[in-house]
Each structure stands twice: as structure tokens, then as C-alpha cells.
Amino acid sequence: MRTLISNIQQLLQTESTNKARKQGLEMQQLPMLENAYVLVENDSILDYGKMGDLKEQQVDKNIDASGAFVLPTWCDSHTHLVFAATREGEFIDKIQGCSYEEIARKGGGILNSARKLQDTPEEVLLASAYERLQDVRSYGTGAIEIKSGYGLTLAAELKMLRVIRQLKTMTKIPIKASFLGAHALPLAYKNNRAGYIDLIINKMLPQIAEEGLADYIDVFCEKVAFSVKETEQLMEAGARYGLKPKIHTNQFNCMGGIQASVAHQAVSVDHLEVINDAEIDCLLQSDTMATLLPSAPFFINDHYPQARKMIDAGLGVALATDYNPGSTPSGNMPFVLSLACIKMKMLPEEALNAATINGAYAMELSDTLGSISLGKKANLIITKPMQSIAYMPYAFGTNWVEKVMIAGEV
Ligand code: NIG
Ligand code: FE
After folding, report:
1. Which end of the chain has a smaller Cβ tally under 10 Å, C or N?
2. Is any ligand 1 atom within 6 A of the Cβ of residue 78?
3. Nearest CA to ligand 1 atom 10
């Protein structure tokens, strides 16, 4: 099956060097071709170039992209897409002055989601997660990471991860699964933190590994959740099963979570609403991606990560949604791009790099996704006609995604 996308106004992110990620000043570079075509064979990019160089040939399908931009689909490297119920009640509490951390301390928040998930059958979870996956695909997401962490018992964590495994078979969108047993301390372990860590390490991890249910281990390293020491213990345990860390840290406090994650070769550290100079330096010396989730501070009215400072220091950053029922009830990547530019002063080119190639890097998928390169997966966004790439983050809330191609299929 051959599909030709022709007359593309601009084909974006045509990366011939196969860079795994972009950092610092490179983030401003978005290679592109004007008046271009992409030729897709089955699920991959067979060829691309300028219309003038297009050789006449037989194709099965022709898509005329006059006036449109074509770019790689979003790589959303941080989501909690599997959940049982939304949490509008807490939304009202927040409007009335309660903070996200206060709600968590009162047994709301993650524990609220866990209670509901424990009582929800696997097939019900699967159906709602699949619907969300279709929804985020319509915004242009073409690769996604999904976490457990609303189970918090052996049975319920396994149930979540099995749902993610089933999702992997139901879609051509590449999915990575992260085991986030250490998302919150369950009430049953209120006075026995060590007991819960022991449950994760000695009961949950072995079974998850045996069933091959996770690609990564995640920990919510924060004052309201797990300490740096506990995070280290969990990363070490994960490593024994070949699970690399992707760690929630620095959402509210700088406590050493970044340094510990880097020391354990974390693929990414995520949130980073707060960060100090030593932590930026530490990341600069590492292969760990700094993943920013600006729709979380948008929704809980917190301050945004200092993206400008990080990029100007030479770091690469990735952008992801954090789609979850508590701090970010949205999986809309175009909105994340708008927040990145409007609230974090990222340039449109930087936001596009952060949401494509750097997001792919944060899921270890940059050899197959994240740029328009020969042989990479044909996961592409075709936009509505527009004047410039700045329109994408500028026109916040506007649906400018016209078509989404996943593995060669629109
Ligand atoms: O990434 N911060 C920890 N976990 C999620 C929120 C989870 C929730 O509130 O349900 C996050 O923001
Ligand atoms: Fe998260």
C-alpha cells in the first residue's frame, strides 16, 4: 500500500541526521521543506522531498495537502490515561480555595481515584481508556506512555497494567507502560510506609515482571508522596527487573529527586515546576530528559516550569500532557504547545521539537518516531491550511488538526 501526500506547504521536522533528541539552541532548529511531498509505504516513510523532485509513479492513495503543514505526530510521554472516574468534586473544592496538596492530604486526590478504580471491572476500564485514546489521537497524538498508579493494591495495579497491555493490541499507536505503584501511600499503610514499599518490591514488581506488564518504573517523589530514599529503593528494585525509571519529581519541592533519578539512569524526570541551578547542572551532565507538563500547573493554578531558563542553560525539554483525572483532565497536546509558548516563553519551533523528537526520546522511541526520516513510522499530522507554524500554538483551543495518519493509515 502506497500513499502519497503531495503539495505540502511545509513539511516539518525533516531530520536527516537521526538525532535522538534536541538540546539547548538546537531546540530552535526545525528543519523543513517547502512545497513538499511524503511517500508512505505500508506503515513507514519511504521517501520525501520537494515537489519538483517527485518522480512519476503509481500510488494507491493520493492526499492533496495544499496549504497544509505536515509534521510527525505528538509523542505524549507522560499520561495516566487509565482511570475509573473523573473528579469534578475536587475541581469545585479547588475553586473554593482548597489546594491540590490539601485535597491529597485529606484522602482525596489519588486515593479517591484508587478507591474507584479498585471497584471497576477491567473491561469497563478498558472501554473508557480506549475512548480516551481515540480522543487524543484526534488531537494528533501518535505515541503515548501510560502509567498505572491508581490501583495501589497488587490486584488493582495488575488490572491497570493489563488494561494497558490490551490497549497495545487494540491500536497501532505505540504505547509504553510505566508501573507507578508508588503514586500515593494507601490508607491501609498509613502507619507502615515500609510495609507498602515492601509490597511493591516483593509482591508487585516480581509479578509485573513475570507477566512483562511494564516498560518503566515511576515513583511520585514528593513531600506528599515518597521520599528520595524510598524512590532510590524503588528504582534499584525496578532495575533488578530491567525497568528503567521515569520519575515524577520537583512538582512542589526540590528534594534531590532529580539527582537521584539521574544517578539511576532515569529516562526522564517529569514535572519540574520547581528546579534549582544544581539540578539543572545535574541534568546537563546526563542522558535524562526533562519532561514538562504545563497543563498540570494550568489546571491546579500553580506556577509553570522555568522552560526558558532550562533551555537557555543548554538542556533539552520534552512536553507531555499528564492526562489524569486530578491535575490534568485533558490529553490535548496542541493546548500543551500553546501553554509552552504563552506561559513558558518557548518558541513555536522549541515547542514542536519538545512535543515530537524529545517526547519520543523520553519513551526511547526516537529511532522510529518523532521526525520525518526515511524508514521511520508514518505517524503524521496534516493540518488545516494555515500561514505559519506559529499559528499552531497561537490559535489555542482551535482545532487545526485536519487528519492524523497512524502507521500509514488515516
Ligand atoms: O502527575 N503528581 C502526581 N500524579 C499526577 C496527578 C494524579 C492525580 O491527582 O490523580 C500528576 O499530576
Ligand atoms: Fe503524572
Report:
1. N
2. no
3. 326
User: φ, ψ for residue 101 (rounded to 5)?
Assistant: -70, -40
**Distance from Cα 271 to the centre of ligand 2, integer Å:** 8
Write the pLDDT tens digit of every residue in 12-65: 999 888 889 999 999 999 999 999 999 999 999 999 999 999 999 899 999 999
- Calpha distance 284→129 (Å, rounded): 36
Instruction: Pull the grid cell for residue 339.
Output: 501553554
pLDDT digits (tens, 9 = 90+) for 240-249: 999 999 999 9
Q: Assign 38 to helix, strand or coil.
A: strand
pLDDT greater than 90 at residue 107? no
Tens digit of pLDDT for each residue in 231-273?
Answer: 999 999 999 999 999 999 999 999 999 999 999 999 999 999 9
- What domains can you pick out in the chain, each with its CATH number? 2-72+370-405 (2.30.40.10), 75-361 (3.20.20.140)
Ligand 1 atom nearest 104 alpha carbon? 9
The pTM of the full predicted model, rounded to 2 decimals, is 0.97
Residue 148 CB–ligand 1 contact under 6 Å: no
- The dihedral built from the CA positions of residue 4, 10, 13 and 15, taken in this order, carries a sign that is positive
Smallest Cα–Cα separation from 323: which of 105, 127, 76, 106? Answer: 76
CB-ligand 1 contact for 327 (6 Å cutoff): yes
Cα–Cα distances in Å, from 119 out to 122, 165, 183, 333? 9, 20, 18, 30
> Ligand 2: distance of its center to the CA of 320 in Å?
9
Distance, in Å, from the CA atom of 408 to the CA atom of 410, rounded to the nearest integer, reads: 7
User: Which amino acid is present at 371?
Assistant: S
Residue 162 has pLDDT above 90, yes or no: yes
What ligand has the least distance to the C-alpha of 80?
A: 2
